[in-house]
Amino acid sequence: MAEAPADKPVKALRPKLAASLILRRTRASGDTEILLGRRSGGHVFMPQKYVFPGGRVDRTDGYAPLAGEPKPAVRETLRRVLSERRARAAAAAAIRETAEETGLLIARPGAIARARPEWRPFADAGAQPDAEPLDLVARAITPPGRTRRFDAFFFTADIEALHGPATLTGSGELEDLQWVALPDAHSLDIPIITRFVLSELDAHLKGEQQGVRCARVTRAGPRLDPV
Q1: pTM assigned to the model
Q2: Where does the pLDDT of residue 1 fall: very low under 50, low under 70, confident under 90, or very high at 90 and above?
Q3: 135-168 burial code (b ≥16 CB/10 A, e <16)
Q4: Which CATH code for domain 16-226?
Q5: End-to-end Cα spacing for the chain
């Protein structure tokens, strides 16, 4: 009997472009709170983990009806690793996913002509998505060998950039949406990469972090590199 052919090596998946948005607000005490939600158990990727609103970048995000483009410093950093259109799409996706998963609109007053379904909540509110308030905090690439891989960019914005009420609603993709004091977020069931992003955010807010860093895994082990 002929021997069965050896298994072919599995080709590493190419990471999909993704984006998340860390919304912040300041307590009367001056402490910073951030918005987190728990992924439903039906998700294949990180079920039941607390994460920031976000998701995969869609092809149409590059043509989002933005009222304001990413600020020059953010655009310059993104353009080191992304094309102009994909850089714009990443910022737009962070805003879109946040609207879908939380009901919160990072926007300014304005009209959208012939709004696509994903931007209908903005059009109905008389607003256009606005990428100008976003700052870039971190980048992270899912390690090889995973069944889902993402090249994720993490943005942050203050809740003052919201258009309309700060009432938490959403699609149900994120459960138990809650504002959490930045130090207390580590007590939740969060992924390792979220802990990294939280530390980068803390350094960013304190003015201790120069530039944006990317967390990834190579054959030599985990690495942190400038974007």
Answers
A1: 0.91
A2: very low
A3: bbbbbbbbeeeeeebbbbbbbbbebebbbeeeee
A4: 3.90.79.10
A5: 54
